[in-house]
TrEMBL record:
<protein>
    <recommendedName>
        <fullName>Phospholipid/glycerol acyltransferase domain-containing protein</fullName>
    </recommendedName>
</protein>
<keyword id="KW-0012">Acyltransferase</keyword>
<dbReference type="GO" id="GO:0006654">
    <property type="term" value="P:phosphatidic acid biosynthetic process"/>
</dbReference>
<dbReference type="InterPro" id="IPR002123">
    <property type="entry name" value="Plipid/glycerol_acylTrfase"/>
</dbReference>
<feature type="domain" description="Phospholipid/glycerol acyltransferase">
    <location>
        <begin position="50"/>
        <end position="162"/>
    </location>
</feature>
<dbReference type="GO" id="GO:0003841">
    <property type="term" value="F:1-acylglycerol-3-phosphate O-acyltransferase activity"/>
</dbReference>
<keyword id="KW-0808">Transferase</keyword>
<dbReference type="Pfam" id="PF01553">
    <property type="entry name" value="Acyltransferase"/>
</dbReference>
<dbReference type="GO" id="GO:0005886">
    <property type="term" value="C:plasma membrane"/>
</dbReference>
Length: 236
């Protein structure tokens, strides 16, 4: 698999070409098989670096986001995906930054920071695991740590319609509706990596803005904070 080296970040011409092909094929497949909608494209920064923080309801969220973002994003993903039957081919084709969940993965974090320094648009699911469409789980500290080292803007994204019901409807011959809502970028705020409480507050702020892009029944842990965002009581 091709990933960034800890000393820097670069993608070969071949990798860029393959990513373009994967995105093109993916967009076509969505248009033929589903009813994709994208709202809020005006909120996408014209250039990187920035983070794309999204809710993780199912395995179908990342491919939808990858194929419908204006420019090919870099992906921070669980290392097991590079070996998982049924998905490893696509993961290896597109490439990304593998991270080992539940442990301090210094190499992955170095890759992540190198990518951001090089101006990448980096996808991250702050929940750190799939919520199975049962509502948002509290975001983990990984996002907070990244922001403590690279205070870049964060673009909140809410995806609906991509739960496991998506595949059930496809198999039934339906064209499921899947929606990508892009919120306004949250400006970078310095966070002290020694202050876990401050990092968690920053993560929760980002998650609240994601929740505000979702229907009430999918906001989960962030239901109350989302109401604050929607009423203008919670800033960036």
């Amino acid at each position: 698999m091709e990933t960034a080296s800890p000393a820097g970040y670069s993608l070969s011409t071949a990798r860029l070409t393959v990513r373009g092909l994967v995105r093109g094929v993916g967009r076509l497949a969505y248009r033929l098989l589903a009813r994709p909608e994208v709202h809020g494209l005006e909120n996408v920064p014209p250039r990187g670096p920035y983070l794309i923080a999204f809710n993780h309801s199912s395995i179908f969220d990342p491919p939808f986001l990858i194929t419908h973002w204006p420019a090919a994003p870099e992906v921070l993903a669980e290392a097991d995906l590079w070996q998982e039957k049924g998905r490893k081919m696509w993961v290896r084709l597109y490439g990304g930054i593998p991270i080992h969940r539940g442990q301090y993965d210094r190499r992955a974090l170095e890759h992540t920071l190198a990518a951001l320094r090089a101006g990448a648009r980096l996808m991250i699911a702050p929940e750190g695991r799939v919520n199975s469409g049962l509502g948002l789980l509290q975001g983990r500290l990984g996002l907070g740590w990244i922001l403590s080292q690279a205070p870049v803007p964060v673009v909140p994204v809410g995806i609906t319609g991509s739960t496991l019901e998506f595949m059930r409807k496809l198999r039934a011959g339906e064209r499921p509706r899947v929606i990508l809502r892009i919120g306004r970028a949250l400006e970078s705020v310095p966070v002290d990596s020694r202050d876990k409480a401050a990092m968690q507050r920053r993560v929760d702020t980002v998650m609240a803005h994601i929740a505000a892009l979702l229907p009430p029944e999918e906001r989960g842990f962030y239901t109350e904070m989302a109401e604050g965002v929607l009423s203008g009581q919670t800033g960036s």
